[in-house]
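Troubleshooting log. The previous structure file for this entry was overwritten by mistake, so regenerating from the original sequence record. Sequence copied from the archived sheet and checked twice against the printout by T.R.
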Amino acid sequence: MSQSLFNPFKDLIFDEHFCFLSGDLTNENITVFPEWLMNHFKFGDERIEMMDKSKAYTYADLKLPCSAEVKKAFEELDVKVQAAFKKGFEGMEELDQELLFQWTGRMVYGLLYYEMVYERDRLLKKGEEFKLSQTLRKRFGYFHLMLQSLIEPISFKGKKPWSIAVFPLKYSSDIFSYRDDAINLMFSFGVNGFGFVACLQDNGVIGEKQKELLDKIEGHVLHPVQFEELYARFHYSDYILQYKPEYNIESQDSGITIEVKTADKLPVFGLWDEDIFAQLLSNYWQVYGIEKEDILQFQKPPLSFLENPYTKDFIDPESIKLPF
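Regenerated output below.
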């Protein structure tokens, strides 16, 4: 990893006077979730809980310290994403995936930042030292470096370090749906018109694992229950992922190049356990009243709204009678 750029995970620096991205001293800040998005869907006053459920914030209160340069860069990125957002699926699909990675990365990193600060302060009150495993330091440090591509001459060579899938989606016009797993660097986003799922540091292997399904989806407008199932498949695939993403990083006068290292050992994924997956999926489908027992029934294949369990044909979204 480049030694010249700020890496907060090296010395666990999460301070309100240091820009979260560049490390520059600052008194300015930026919201974790873009203001235009919170205003459009009116969720700024809604509450979000930390992972252990013992502390909550409003979305609008989640802010990251940032320099004027970083704030300007994200504002310019927001203009591009908002313009694409207004065009719906076509606009978002045409958006460069690196921009979508940076835009999504701001929110995922922001939530991760708050988890780090919360855990540090919790341990400090107990007189204990805040520690992070070397594995997580390395993983989060790579993610932070990639996010700095917004403000630094950082380029990605060959295979991208992420899996991002964008597709048409049908929701009621006033609904904004998102899920995140900041520790595992995952995010899903859905509104009327389009949705996307993102694994921000899987080196593209989860997208490859789900490619056959993604090919079937192409040309269809997903029902929300299908969107939830797709994210559940990405999320569980990340859970059983068995290798640590590694990179070749070269620093030159012209900038930094990041290249994905190919995994040497196979299989990359562990065993897919239908019982565990059904539990995860039932959490996503609870709004439809679908329980784990409905997904796994004796002598029947697992319930799916994406593929016919017998023929593996894609299920036409228009045939699904559940509300959207």
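The chain has a mean pLDDT of 93. Archived copy saved in two places this time.
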